[in-house]
Amino acid sequence: MEKSSILPLRGFSSDNNAGVHPEILEAIGRVNQGHVVAYGDDAYTRSAVGKFEEHFGPDIAVFFTFNGTGANVLSLQALTRPFNSVLCSDYAHIYTDECGAPEKHTGCKLISLPQQAGKITLDSVRHAYHGIGDEHHAQPRVISITQSTEMGTVYRPEEIQGFARFAHEHGMFLHMDGARLANAAVSLGQTLRQASRDLGVDVLSFGGTKNGILGGEAVVFFHPEQSQDFLYLRKQSMQLASKMRFIAAQFEALLTGDLWRRSAEHANRMARVLEKEISRIPGVRVVWKVEANGVFVQIPPHAIEKIKRQYFFYVWIEEESIVRWMCSFDTTEDDIRIFAEVIAEAVKG
């Protein structure tokens, strides 16, 4: 490969593209000793669950999965039957980016609601709640929200409480896709519990991969009785890790010494620095408020391919020339300065 074709070591396409936090790698190394019982029946996994209890409170059920799609699908499957429906944003990850896995594995219908800056409203939920008791209609069972959203915005606590109140008054559940919950929590100045359980969330898909973990996500039930069959669902869905200790150790490290908070705070701060730098460039417009670690920008169409010659990133809404740039736990201000220079040159034409 010619040197000119090598992409930058650190880019802005996704926090999934970042490496593994050194403290996570150390944690994996520490548990890589001797033999332990497989499939999670080991002291390391129990210790990691204890860390979740420290952050989210007692009387919870925690299950580790390989990836976010698995966590989301299994969360929904545990709460529904095939004749149910799930209400979510028309830009929700479960609706647009999981290849139909939620519908295939739950048998449920996903009903998409219009979003504004990534967020659905309680009014849209009320509008979609109909056909109750009618055998011809899928029965609404779950409201699913993403925090922070697919547009980098953050639901306010009162918005989430409103969804939870409506769900519980109507025999429904509130699921939170928390792939970037850490970023949302620090943006709001909340603890992880304050950002989820205390607001009425029933089941949380808690993300680690986007916040420095090598691989692994967690499903957290705040009402353990809802997880009654989860062990079997997880196995049947091929999300049960035999060497569970290596996923568990990563989460224990993430939840120890506020690593989750430090990493998310840094990524969020870098997003604000990036916003400031690119806002100075004529022809560049930040389209949604930067509240977590994502910056969504409208740029001249001719600039996209020029920037892509040096940096890979995603075009979010092609017809509007809106692109997404993400910051990570390891993003530096020098990375941003160099990136901004490339953008300015590309936009110039």
Structural description of this entry:
The chain is built from 13 helices and 11 strands. Helix 11 runs parallel beside helix 13 and helix 12 (301-308) packs across helix 13. Helices cover 39% and strands 16% of the residues. The chain has 349 residues and is of the alpha/beta class. The mean pLDDT is 96. The strands form 2 sheets. Strands 1-7-6-5-4-2-3 form a 7-stranded mixed β-sheet, sandwiched between helices. Strands 8-9-11-10 form a 4-stranded antiparallel β-sheet. It has helices at residues 22-31, 43-56, 68-79, 93-96, 101-106, 122-128, 157-169, 181-188, 230-236, 245-254, 259-278, 301-308, 333-348; strands spanning 61-65, 84-89, 109-113, 139-146, 173-178, 203-207, 217-221, 285-286, 294-298, 314-317, 322-326. The protein folds into 2 domains: 7-18 and 259-348, Aspartate Aminotransferase, domain 1, CATH 3.90.1150; 22-254, Type I PLP-dependent aspartate aminotransferase-like (Major domain) (Aspartate Aminotransferase, domain 2), CATH 3.40.640.10.
CATH class of the largest domain: Alpha Beta
Q: Name the helicity range.
A: 25-40%
Low-confidence stretches: none
Hey, roughly how much beta strand do the residues contain? 15-25%
In CATH terms, what is the fold-level topology of the largest domain?
A: Aspartate Aminotransferase, domain 2
The spatial strand order of the largest sheet comes to 1-7-6-5-4-2-3
Task: Give the biggest sheet.
Answer: 7 strands, mixed
Specify the CATH architecture of the largest domain: 3-Layer(aba) Sandwich
- Number of domain units: 2
Tally the helices: 13
Say which CATH homologous superfamily of the largest domain is assigned: Type I PLP-dependent aspartate aminotransferase-like (Major domain)
Number of strands: 11
Q: Could you tell me how far the N terminus lies from the C terminus, measured between alpha carbons in angstroms?
A: 28 Å
* Class based on secondary structure composition and strand pairing: alpha/beta
Summed over residues and divided by their number, the pLDDT gives a mean of: 96
Q: Globular, elongated, flat, extended or rod-shaped: what is the shape?
A: globular
Strand and helix order: HHEHEHHEHEHEHEEHHHEEHEEH
| Rg value | 21 Å
